[in-house]
Specification:
Radius of gyration: 15 Å
Distance between the termini: 38 Å
Organism: Cellulomonas biazotea
CATH class: Alpha Beta
Protein name: Activator of Hsp90 ATPase homologue 1/2-like C-terminal domain-containing protein
Pfam families: AHSA1 (PF08327)
Family: Belongs to the AHA1 family.
Domain Activator of Hsp90 ATPase homologue 1/2-like C-terminal: 15-140
Low-confidence stretches: none
Length: 145
């Protein structure tokens, strides 16, 4: 059973502060509606950027759907939150995103979906499509957010 974190890396043409802000404040703009409880009802997503803050998907019918809880914030360098999206709520995983400055104002963004254990590893195979979502973030960052 593979318990290694799913890892994806991107380079975006903006400084870490802008990349971090787009991740946190712009998630409702770049999140793919297909990865919500009801794609037709998707109305956005929210990350409350403080320890204990909620990560929510907004749905027309269901309202605010809890996705996770922020466990670490080191703006504009790192954000960590739990995740129960598409998996058993009793065995959450962890999303970690780091924003590393590059020369000439670019940012190296490293995304890791980890926290896999014997209790939640069966769900890991469902998350092979992260690039479909993360590509939207990178494209929006390339357009200036």
């Amino acid at each position: 059973m593979d318990l290694t974190p799913l890892r994806h890396e991107y380079t975006v043409p903006c400084p870490p502060g802008a990349a971090f802000d787009l991740w946190v404040q712009g998630i409702g703009r770049w999140w793919h509606p297909d990865y919500s409880p009801d794609p037709d009802g998707f109305r956005g997503a929210t990350i409350e950027p403080w320890v204990g803050g909620q990560v929510l998907l907004e749905d027309a019918r269901l309202g605010a759907v809890p996705w996770g809880t922020v466990v670490e914030v080191d703006a504009p360098h790192r954000l960590v939150h739990t995740s129960v999206l598409g998996q058993d709520r009793t065995s959450p995983t962890t999303i970690t995103v780091t924003f590393e400055p590059l020369p000439h104002d670019g940012t190296h963004v490293v995304f890791e979906h980890g926290g896999w254990s014997d209790e939640n590893a069966e769900a890991r195979a469902k998350f092979t499509e992260w690039p479909r979502i993360l590509d939207r973030y990178a494209a929006l960052a390339a357009q200036g957010g």
